[in-house]
Amino acid sequence: MGLKAAAWKHFGTGLKYWSFRITSYVSGKLPLRFAYWVGTIAGDVVYLTWRRHSANAVSNMRRVMGEHADWQVVKETARDSFRNYAKTFVDFLRFPHIDKEDITRFVDTKYGWENLEKARSKGKGVIAITGHIGNWDLAAAVMGTWGLPLNALADTFEPKKMDDLINGTREKYGLKIIRLETGSLKNIFTALKRNEIVMLLFDRPQPEQGVPVKFFGETAWLPEGPAAIALKTGAPIIVGYCARSRGDRRFHGEFEPALEYEHLLTGDKEKDIQIITQEIVTHLEKIIRRYPDQWFMFRQMWPRTKRNDAEVKRRRFWGGRDSVEVAG
Fold this sequence. Notes:
Blueprint: H1 3-29, H2 32-49, H3 51-65, H4 71-94, H5 100-106, H6 113-120, E1 126-130, H7 136-145, E2 150-154, H8 160-172, E3 176-179, H9 184-193, E4 197-201, E5 211-215, E6 218-222, H10 225-233, E7 237-244, E8 251-255, H11 269-290, H12 306-315
Parallel strand pairs: 1-4, 1-7, 2-3, 2-4
Antiparallel strand pairs: 5-6, 7-8
């Protein structure tokens, strides 16, 4: 890399850091309701201008709400998911400026706590699965604040002071960060051997290398990692979430009972990974149905034909009561 290119890269990373830091500071000083209002406007702008991803959201929401759902309702729910994601980003920006007492005030209930304790009693650690639903960073912070030995996978941010600010804030709440780099799988196994909890975001589509499962009645390809780790370690899998309550002042979450799939296993590793992954998807699907406007899936989860793609992009602006086929 030449000196000029290196200088521009240094300038870009510095600009990114200071932009985040200043925005975080301002968000922390603003009244929460006003910050959410600004976030809602930003969410609408992104929905209208981020054409490909908003079309993905509309297409995905069509699957969630069913083929006979009113297009207007589908479109509005997809748009609401952008608004709620913007609010979640506001929460993320405010994280460096709040303390543990604030965290416990946001989420003051422990639904399904006994399910988590029962899973940990086996001594093999716990794989805690969630999706891009509600506020997963807040869920992790709450678990850390409550004293649970929680590990979470996270990207490494550039520059280093940006990483120190973001992941350092997460560690402030008791999280142990496992970097998404070489050696992360070994660190996951080590954490489970210590009977700790490993939190994994699961619902990122992987059409080239994922496991085929039935998701809202159609085939999607999702990561095999959680199932493969569970098979190798014997760690129980628990699905949970942390969703925004009406009024935006509180969150509520739940740990479901550990998945029971042992009686379905065949002894064939590939088939067993598919079986376990399908069980995870089935439970995650129920949560998404409950909170469709808090499912932040702006990637293409299911394949679309060109005709369907054009129709969905048009429908993201205009609703309508007639229905069209979305999948190819």
